[in-house]
Amino acid sequence: MKIETKITEAVKAIVEELYGQQVPDSMVQLQQTRPEFEGQITLVVFPFTKMSHKAPDATAQEIGERLVERLPEVVSAYNAVKGFLNLSISSRQWISLLQDIYENPKFGFLPVTDDSPLVMIEYSSPNTNKPLHLGHVRNNLLGWALAQVMEANGNKVVKTNIVNDRGIHICKSMLAWLKWGNGETPESSGKKGDHLIGDYYVAFDKHYREEVKELVAQGMDEEQAKQEAPLIKEAHEMLVKWEQNDPEVRGLWKKMNEWVYAGFDETYKALGVSFDKIYYESETYLEGKEKVEEGLAKGFFYRRDDGSVWADLTKEGLDEKLLLRSDGTSVYMTQDIGTAKLRFQDYPIDKMIYVVGNEQNYHFQVLSILLDKLGFKWGKDLVHFSYGMVELPNGKMKSREGTVVDADDLIATMIQDAKELSADKVNKLEGITEQEAQEIARIVGMGALKYFILKVDARKNMLFNPAESIDFNGNTGPFIQYTYARIRSILRKWNDVITLDEKAFEVGLAEKEISLIQRLQGFEAAVRQAGQDYNPSCIANYCYDLVKEYNQFYHDFSVLKEEDEAKRQVRLMLSAAVSQVVKNGMGLLGIEVPERM
Fold this sequence. Notes:
Blueprint (H helix, E strand, L loop, with lengths): L2 H17 L10 E3 L8 E4 L4 H4 L3 H15 L4 E7 L2 E6 L1 H12 L15 E5 L11 H19 L3 E8 L4 H13 L5 H4 L3 H25 L4 H7 L1 H14 L3 H25 L5 E4 H17 L4 E2 L5 E4 L7 E5 L7 H15 L4 E7 L3 H13 L9 E5 L2 E2 L15 H15 L1 H5 L6 H21 L7 E2 L2 H4 L7 H18 L7 H4 L5 H23 L3 H20 L8 H24 L9
Parallel strand pairs: 5-6, 5-11, 6-7, 11-12, 13-14
Antiparallel strand pairs: 1-2, 2-4, 3-4, 8-9, 9-10
Helix pairs in contact: 1-3, 4-21, 4-23, 6-8, 6-10, 8-9, 8-11, 12-13, 13-14, 15-17, 19-22, 19-23, 21-22, 21-23, 22-23
C-alpha cells in the first residue's frame, strides 16, 4: 500500500475517533512538504477545524499525536505550522517504496485490458505534393508521444493517418512533371520520391507566378490574372479529369503518389513513428458526400438555390458552413465526415483525438457538432489536440516557395551535429566501433530533436533552434541521455545482483535520498497528468527534474565506493530505479536512451 494511502486511511479513522465524523478521501489533502520545513508529506488541516472547533495549530497537534501512535512504522515525527501538519516518514517506508518501484518494470503504467476504452489518434496528415517539413515533425512527434501516453494510462490505442492525396495541389505537381520532368523518376534522379514531387510543386508555383506577372503587366487585375493564368486553368482541367476517373490522369496520379509514399515511409522510420491504419482522402470524400446527403434528407442540412449544401449552426453560436459546393464537389469538412464514417465502421471508437495545428480550431469545433448531429457517439466529445506553430529564428515557413525546413535534412543535420559534439565523449569509450559511434550519434541527435520539441507545452507556438537542442547541460535530451548512460556504467561496474536485506531497511536515509525516492514516485502522477491533459511535455519535464535530482545526489554521495554494504545496496537500487524510470519516461516520448555515451 502506498504511503499516502496508509496516511489517508489513518487520518479518516482518527478524525472519526476525535470528532465523530466520517470524511471522504477527497477531504484528506496531502502534498509534498515545502523545503523550508522539516518532513516530506504535509496534511492540510483546515478542512477539519470546523469539526474540531479548535484552532488550526491545535487541530494539527492533535491529529499528529494520534498519527504517530497509530502508524509508528510510517510516521516517525511531525511538526505543526498553522493549518499544516508536516510529517516525517520513516526511512524504512521510503526504502520499501523504492524496492516496489525497482521491482515493477512498468511502474507508473496502467494495464490495457479487453475492457479498456479504445482511443483513436490521428496525426501526420500529409499532402502528397511535397516532402514532410519541420511542422510535420512536430505533428508526428506529438501524435506518437500522445499515443504512448494514452496507452500508459490504460487505453487501447489505434494510431491513424489521413493522407491528403487529391485536389488541386496534387494536380499542380503532376502538371509540372508532365511539362518539365522529361520522364524523371526517383531512380533516375537519385532523389527520394517525396522530394522529387516537391520540386515540381515549387516549379509549378515559379512558372505560375511568372504568368500572373505577365498578365498583370498586360493590364489585367492581379486577382483576375491568378484565375486566368494558363497553368492554373490546366491544373483545374486535370482535376476535373481526375474526378471523372480519366485513366491517363489516374495512372499518373497513382504512380507519382507511390513515389511519395516510399519517401514518406523513410522519413517516418527515421522519426520512429508508425500507424496502425492509413486512410486516403481519395477514398473517403465520396463517403462524406453520401453522409451529407443523408443529413440533408433528415433535415440537418439545407440546399441553397445554386445547389450547394450548407449546415446552419447559428443556434450553436457559430455561422453557416458549406458542405457541398454548387457543382457537387466536396470540401475538407465533407472529407472529414467521410473519414469518420469509415473509421467508425472499422473500429469501436470510444474517443477520437485529432492532432492538428491551432489554425484549424474552428474547423474541429464545427466537425464535432456535425458528427454529433449525424449520430457518431464520440462526435460531441472529440478532442482536437490543438498545437502551436513551429517558427524558426528567421521566420515562418512556406512550402510553395521552397523555404521550409525539410524533415530529412533536419534529421541528417541533427545526427551529424550530435556526432561532432559527442565525439570526445564517445571516442573515450573502450572498444567502440565506428558503427556503434554512428548509432550513438543517431540516438543522441534524434533525442535532442524530439525532446526539444516535446518539452514545450503543445498549445504554445515554439521557436526551434537546433544549436540549443544539442547540449549536454540544461533541459535537453542529451543531458537526460547522458545521465542515463552514466547510471548504466555504474551498474555495469557493479555487475552483481542488487538485493536489500534486513540491514538495508534499517539504513537512515539522507534528505536528498528521500527526495529522490519521492521524485521517482512522482512518475505515476506525471503519467496520469499527461494523459488527463493530453500533454506529453509533463513527461519530458518530469524526466529532466528526475535526472537533475539524481545528479545532485550522485555529486554528494558515493555509490560504488560506499563502504557500508547496506547503504551501497540501497544506493545501487536507487540508481537502477532512476535509470528504469528515465528509460520508460523517455520511451513514452519516442526517445531512445543509449547504454553507453
